[in-house]
Design the sequence.
């Protein structure tokens, strides 16, 4: 099942990067993305999505491993949708710190579907490095996301 999630993730990421690289736009979506209320709603949905993805870490920190094991599948299923959620909020990677935020978001998503177990790797050291990288990127993403929200509300 992990390989299926990874394949869907690769397809969705490739589709996003293709449309971005070739500047393919859906006029109705571009119009909606210019609307202030639409930006607020999709931004809130992205925030809720990201916070929901943190639920797995919360369970692990509280040492609720049985619940975390069940949550892991939901975490993966929802994680697959990351590029779609991003696309409906913004159809481009942006500039300056927004480019960094967007790239980090998609890089962390990429880390998610490149979990060592997808490739049949069960090395404890590699798994530990992977989880530290994925969670660290998620933490940095939260910092940049906080800055993005602050600047968005400060200047609107």
Sequence:
């Amino acid at each position: 099942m992990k390989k299926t999630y990874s394949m869907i993730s690769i397809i969705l990421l490739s589709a996003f990067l293709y449309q971005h690289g070739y500047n393919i736009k859906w006029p109705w979506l571009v119009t909606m993305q210019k609307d202030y209320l639409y930006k607020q709603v999709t931004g809130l949905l992205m925030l809720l999505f990201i916070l929901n993805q943190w639920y797995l870490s919360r369970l692990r920190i509280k040492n609720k491993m049985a619940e975390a094991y069940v949550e892991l599948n939901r975490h993966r299923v929802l994680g697959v949708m990351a590029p779609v959620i991003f696309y409906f909020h913004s159809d481009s990677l942006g500039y300056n710190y927004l480019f960094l935020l967007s790239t980090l978001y998609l890089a962390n998503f990429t880390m998610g579907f490149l979990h060592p177990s997808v490739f049949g790797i069960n090395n404890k050291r590699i798994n530990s490095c992977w989880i530290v990288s994925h969670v660290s990127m998620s933490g940095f993403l939260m910092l940049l996301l906080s800055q993005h929200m602050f600047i968005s509300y400060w200047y609107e």
